[in-house]
Amino acid sequence: MMGRSQWHTLRPLGQPDLGFVLTGLTLALLGLLMVASSSIEVAFDRHGSPFSFAIKHGIFLVIALGAGAITFMVPTKWWYRSATLFLVFSLVLLALVLIPGIGLEVKGARRWLDLGVINLQPSEVAKFTMMLYLAAYLVRRLEEVRTQFMGFLKPMAVVGLIAALLLAEPDFGTLMLIVLAVMGVLLLAGAPFNQYLMIGAAVVVGLAALAIIEPYRIQRFNVLLDPWDDRLGAGYQITQALLAFGRGGWFGLGLGNSVQKLFYLPEAHTDFVFAILAEELGLIGALSTLGLMSILVWRGLLIGRRAERDGRHFAAYLCYGLVLIIGLQMLVNLAVNVGIAPTTGLTLPLMSYGGSSLVVTMASLGVIARISADSIREGRR
Predict the structure, then answer these.
(1) C-alpha span between 272 and 289 (Å, rounded)
(2) Residue 11: what pLDDT?
(3) What does DSSP say about strands 109-114 and 103-106: parallel, antiparallel, or unpaired?
(4) What are the residues whose beta carbons fall under 8 Å from the beta carbon of 152, sequence distance 6 or more?
(5) Who wins on pLDDT, 153 or 332?
(6) Displacement of CA 313 from its chain's centroid (Å)
(7) 324/62 Cα distance (integer angstroms)
(8) Please, what's the b/e burial string for 197-213 (b: 16 or more CB within 10 A of its CB; e: otherwise)?
(9) Where are the domains of the chain?
């Protein structure tokens, strides 16, 4: 006969936050549509098939939906018990990618593991596992984080280890995302604001130093001041993206009618897919997409807040971390597209072409949806 605790784990789930789930699915389907539209010419040029990238992205999306469904079925407590193991696993992957012959080098960066069918980007996994570890750490050390400086410093030391591996790739954009998300979760967990400001200032100085050490990073920042001054060189991508926004006007040129995707704007289906969206769907389409992104982030933060009110601290901090990672990456990518941030190589979550990012993002949404379902179930008792 089942004990009380066993029966408790088998109780049916509550319904997840439908607004959150439907918004995520809408953005993913819109992303598939825009990848298909923005990659037609380059796909035909590289592979002889205009929809080769769209088909691959569609396969990635099916895999990602499967990953989201699996993470939705996993109890939150299992993530808590496995958090450290997942972090160690991601550190091993980050180390493996640096080994010549194992890591795949593209355009001077060694960021991928060639698995044959798919290229895995370990930094995407590291973003997820760092949020798992941080949430579990906060449950164990919450009082220490709120009262002692060392409680704040310990997770930052783990970030330092990840930073060393990411900078060796190099992947400055992902490092920046992880640092900002970790500090955001620590602040939401109640870390003293004076400690937050002190560490925050040190982190900002550190990131600035890392940005100016490499000449190519300095050049990217200089281009922001006047991209048109070197519009055929360092400022080429930004100026072509801005032309895409200008061509779009209020209502756009129509789906499939982008001019900039005709080999003018590099990486049109990856880093700059939003610029093509704005060109084809116009300001109205761009603002509508921004609205969907805002709803996704807002609903995600509400789910975390609800879990925190229920006393489910691990679920709450994990939710905050995953939402911040997704929201900050959206913000950075959009800033790059409109020319107010240097190019980072960060894709637009749920919308850009790419398997690792899409699968990990959808898996994160599955975890958040599970947290929302658990919160609703708790509220009905």
Answers:
(1) 14
(2) 45
(3) antiparallel
(4) 145, 186, 191, 192, 195, 196, 199
(5) 332
(6) 22
(7) 24
(8) eebbeebeeebeebeee
(9) 17-88+131-371
pLDDT at 24: 97
Q: Is 267 left (phi over 0), alpha (psi -120 to 50) or beta?
A: left
Mean pLDDT check: name the lowest of 12-16, 72-76, 327-331.
12-16
pTM of the model: 0.91
Order of strands across the sheet that contains 103-106: 103-106, 109-114, 119-120
Q: How far is CA 52 from the centre of its chain?
A: 24
Copy the structure tokens of residue 71: 């993470």
